[in-house]
C-alpha cells in the first residue's frame, strides 16, 4: 500500500514557489472566473432584451432559445478569434506525471500541503496545445454543472407545469411514445449509425474507434426531444389540447427515458475482454439497471412529491422555502442513492403539482409557480446560449461530414419509426384517433434541446464521444432554428385547429378515455386526493360506509370546508379562462343516482324508526342532507356505457344526517 | 523556465491506476457530495418546521437563526462522534511533494492527462491525521462559497429592504456609526487584543505568531454587526422607527465597512522585510486601498442600480429575470474589476429599491420582493446552521481561554467606544436626540453574524487566523443566543416605545431633519426620481422654465399619468398600513406659491396678447391650468424655518396652458 510511485514533473515555474505569487494567481483566476460568468450574464441580459423586443413586436419566427443560441455563437466567435490571452497565463499549468489519478491530490510545496481536486481528463494528444487556448478552456464549464444545477429546474418545471388533466387522459399514448418510441428511435438510430460507421471504416473516414455501443448511446441521447419550444409556441397559439398533451407529455417523459437508457447503455459491459461484442447476460444486466434506476427514481420522486405539509399555510415564505427544499432534496437523495436525480425531480414535479400544490396557500401557489418559472427561464436560456458558445469554444470538435449526414438521416428516420407505427397501433385502440396531420406535426416538432446537449457534453473523452458531441450540437441547432421556427407555419399548413370546445367534443372526451384512465381517475379522485390534499370530496363521502371511522380520521378538516368548491386547482395550470370550466365539466360527474338512493332511503327508514325529530332539528337535518347529497353527487362514478342522466338532487326524500356524535359535521 | 523540479509521492494506491476504479471513485465522491448537501437541506427543512412551530405558538425567545445554529451544532456532534468512515476512503489521497502550488495541475497517468485544480492549503502539521477525518473535511465548504454565493443575496436583501425614508432622515448618524464607529471599534478591539496577546506571549500561552495587523484584522471582522435578528424582532414589535433605522442602517453599512477595512488591513504590508512593523507609507497605501475599493464598489453598485428598463412592464417574467441578472452582474462586475462584490451589491440593492423598484410592474415588484426574500431566508439559515456545524467539523480549532476572554471584553468595550461617544457627539447636532435607553439598546443589539463568520473563515491558514476563527465562532454564538434572545426583554426593560404617531411627532420630523438631508431630498425628489423612474412629479414641473424642452425630453410619459398618485412606493417597504400615509405626510410639500405665480402670470399675459381663446378652449385651459398648479403644488420645497402655510391652489388666477404643440400635454 505504502509503495513509492514514480513521478515526473514536465514543466514547473520556479517563481511560483513564492507564496504571494500564488495568492495573486488565485486572485487573478478568481477575477477571470467572475469575468467569464459576467459574459454569460450579459448574454442572458441581451437575450432577455431581444426577447422583449420580439414579443413587443409580435415577431414569432424565432423562439427565445434560438435567439440565445445565436448570441452564444457570436460570443463564441469573438472569444475564439477576437481575444488573445497573454502567454503568461500558461504559467499556471505545470504538469507532472503520476501513475494514478485519484480524486484528491495532496501536494507538498516546501512544507505546506495544498489540496488539489480532480477536474477531469484533458483530451489525449492535445496536451501540447493546452496553453494556447486557456481562455477558451476557462469559459468551458464542468459538464456536471448541467446535470446538477441547470437541468433540474428545467425538468422540474416541465413536470410541474404538465397539463395534467389532458396528460392523464392520454396517458396510454404518451407512455407508448415515451417508452416504446424512445427505445425504437434509439435502436433505429443506433443501427443506421452503425451501418454508416462501418461504411466509414471501410472507406477510411474514421479517425478512431467507434463501437456499436457508441452508436446506441448516440441513438439514446438524440432521442430525447425538448419540450421548451413546443410548449411556448403551442401555448401561445392555443393549439388542440390533445395534440399538445401528446407532444408535451412525450417530450417530458422521453427525457427521463433517454437519460436512464443512455446510462444503461454505458453500463453494458460484456464480461471478460474489452471486445464490445454482444452478450445476452450483459444486455439483461443493462435492462435490469434501466428498470431499477427508472423505477427507483420514479418511486423516490413520487414519494417526496406526496409528502404533505398542511399547517404551514399562514407563513407563505416558510411554505415556499420548504417546497423548494423538498424538490431539491429529492434530487440529492436520488443522486446519493445512485438513482438519477433528474428523473426523480421530474416525477416529484408531476406529483407535487397534482397533490401538494393543492395544499399550498394561494400566496405560495403563486410564489412557487413564479419561482420555478424564473429558474427554468434562466437555466434554459443559459444552456442554449452556452450551446451556441461551445460551437467555437469547445476544443476537441470532430466534424465528420459523412457522420453528420448519416446522423441527420438517422434522426429523421428514427423519429419517423417512433411516431408513425406507434400512432397506427395506438389508433387501433383509441376512440379519439390521432389524425395524420397530428402525426406529421409530432414528427416535425421533435426538437432536440437541453437534455440532448447535456448528455452529449457529459463525456467527451474519446474520439467517438467528441464526434457525437459535435454532431449533436449541429442537430440541436438545426432542429431549434429550422423546426422550431417552422412550427407556426407547419401548424397552419397542416390546418391544426385551435382548442375549440363545442358540446359534441365535450361529450366525446369522456367516452374516449381509456378504461385504465377511468379506473385510475376514480381511485385518484376518490381516495388519493382526499388523503393527500385538502381538496376533493372528504373520504367520508367516498369510502364505503364500513370504513367510516378510518375515513373520518384520514380526512383533513379543511376538506369539509372546501367541499363546496370541488373544482380542484389542477386545471388552472395550463388551461386558461373560459376553457377551464367547460373542459372540466366533461370529466366531472354524472350522479350515480339510483345507487345512492337505495342506501339513503334505507338509512332514512332506520332513522325514522328511531323517533321523530323536532321541527328545528328537521330543518337542520334537511340542510345537512341536501349537502350530503351534493357531496355524494360529486363522487365520481363514470358510467361506462350508460347515457348521461341529469342529476336528480333536489327532488329526493331527505337522506339521513350523519351520526350526530361526529363534531366535524356540525361545522358544515 | 522548463527546469525540472523534484517530486515525491508519499502514498499511492497501486490499484487506482485502473480507469474503471477511478471512475467509480469519482462516482462515489459525487454520491458523497450529494449526501453531504442533503444533510444541509435536511437541516434547513428541520429549521423551517421548527420556526413554524415557534411562530405558530408565538414563542419569541429564540430567533430562527439561533435555532439553525443549534441544529447545526447537533449535526456537527453527530458527524464528529457518531459517524465513522471506513478507512478505504483515505485511498483517494495520495500526496506528492512539489515545490510549487500552481492553480492548475496536469497529472500524467500512464499516458492520460488529468487536470487538477487547487482547492486550498491543508493546515500545516495536520497532514498525518487527514485520513482520519475525511468525512468532516467533506462537509467543509470552500470558504469562497460564502462570499460568492451565500453572502450576496443576504446583503442585497438587506439593502433592498432598507427602510429608506427613515434611513435617509437619519443618514448622518447612520454614516457616523457605520464609518467612524466601525473604525473606532476596530482599533479599540485591535489595541486591547494586542495588549492581551503581548501578555499571553510573556506568560507563554501563545502557540504561534500573532502580529499587530492580526489584531487589527480581528478588530475589523468582529466589528461587523448583523442586521438579521434585530430586523426580525424590531419588525415584529414595531419598535420606534428612528431606533430601528439607526440600528438597521448601521448594521447594514458596517458590513460593507468591515469587509473593505479587513481587506485593507491584509493589504498593509511594510516594504522591505517581513517585520510587521509600523510604517506610514504602508498605512497610507492601505487607507488609499480602503477609499479606492469602497468608492469603486459604491459607484459600481449605484451605477447598475439606477440603470432603468422601462418598457418591459408587460412581461413580468422577463422583467424579474432582468432585475435578478442585473443585481448578479453588479456583483460579478465588481469582483472582475477587483472591487468588493458584496459592497457593490449592497449599494445596488439600496439604489434599486429607491429608483428601479418604482419602474417595475406591480407583478414584478411582488416577484422580486418574494424572490429576494426567499433567497435571503435560505442563505441566511444555511450560513447559521453551517456555523453550528463548524464548531465540531472544523479541524484546526484553536481555543485559547485567555484569548477568548480577552476577545469578549474587547468586543464589549469596542462596541461601547463606538456607541456612547458617537451618540454624545451626534446629540450635539441632532434635534431629535438619541436617548440613553436607545443607546443601551444599540449597545446590546450589536450581534455578530454572517459577515463576521464569512470573513473569519475565509482564511484559516495560520495559527493566528485559526484562533480568531474559533473565537469568532464563540462570539457569534454568544451574541445571537444571549443578546438576540434577550432583545425583547431588553426593549421592554428599557421601555422603548412602539412607533406611535401623534401629531406633534409628525410635525417634529421635518424640522429635525438635518439640512444635508433636506437638500439631498429636494434634489432627489425633484430631479433624480423623475429622471430615473416613472414616479415623482414630471421634470417639466420641477425644473426651471428655461430647461423646459430638456425636461420634457427626459420625463417619461408615464410620469404624467402617474402624477395623481404622487406617493411613491418607497414607504410600503417596511412601514405598514396606517402609518404609511401619516409618515409620508410629514415629508411632503408646502407649495412654493409665490415663485410659481410670477412666472405663470407672465406667461399668461403673453398668451392673452396672442389672441383671446374660445370658450371651449378656455374651459380646457382652465382644467389644464388647475392641473398644472396641482403639479407645481407637489414640487417639493421644504422651507427651512418658515411656518408652514396652507397651499393656495384654488384661488389663483388661471396660469397658462403649456405650449399647444406638445402632444404629450394633451394626454393629461
Report on this structure.
The structure is a homodimer of 668-residue chains. With 668 residues, the first copy, chain A, is mainly α. The first copy, chain A, has 25 helices and four strands. A two-stranded antiparallel sheet of chain A has the order 1-2. Chain A has a two-stranded antiparallel ribbon with strand order 3-4. Residues 1-18, 87-100, 123-132, 500-512 and 563-668 of chain A have low confidence and may be disordered. Chains A and B meet through strand 1, helix 1, strand 2, strand 3 and strand 4 of A and strand 1, helix 1, strand 2, strand 3 and strand 4 of B. Strand 4 of chain A pairs antiparallel with strand 4 of chain B.
Helix content of chain A: 55-70%
Average per-residue pLDDT of chain A, rounded, comes to 70
Q: Order of strands across the biggest sheet of chain A?
A: 1-2
Sketch the topology of chain A as an H/E string, one letter per element. EHHEEEHHHHHHHHHHHHHHHHHHHHHHH
How does the helix and strand content of chain A classify structurally?
Answer: mainly alpha
How would you characterize the largest beta sheet of chain A?
2 strands, antiparallel
* Gap between N and C termini of chain A: 75 Å
The radius of gyration computed from the alpha-carbon positions of chain A, rounded to a whole number of angstroms, is: 30 Å
Q: Count of DSSP helices of chain A?
A: 25
How many β-strands of chain A, per DSSP? 4
**Segments of chain A where pLDDT lies below 50 for 5+ residues?**
1-18, 87-100, 123-132, 500-512, 563-668
What kind of oligomer do you see? homodimer
Silhouette of chain A: globular
Largest interface: A-B, 101 and 101 residues
Strand content of chain A: under 5%
Protein name (chains A, B): Sodium/hydrogen exchanger
Organism (chains A, B): Dicentrarchus labrax
Main location (chains A, B): membrane
Pfam families (chains A, B): Na_H_Exchanger
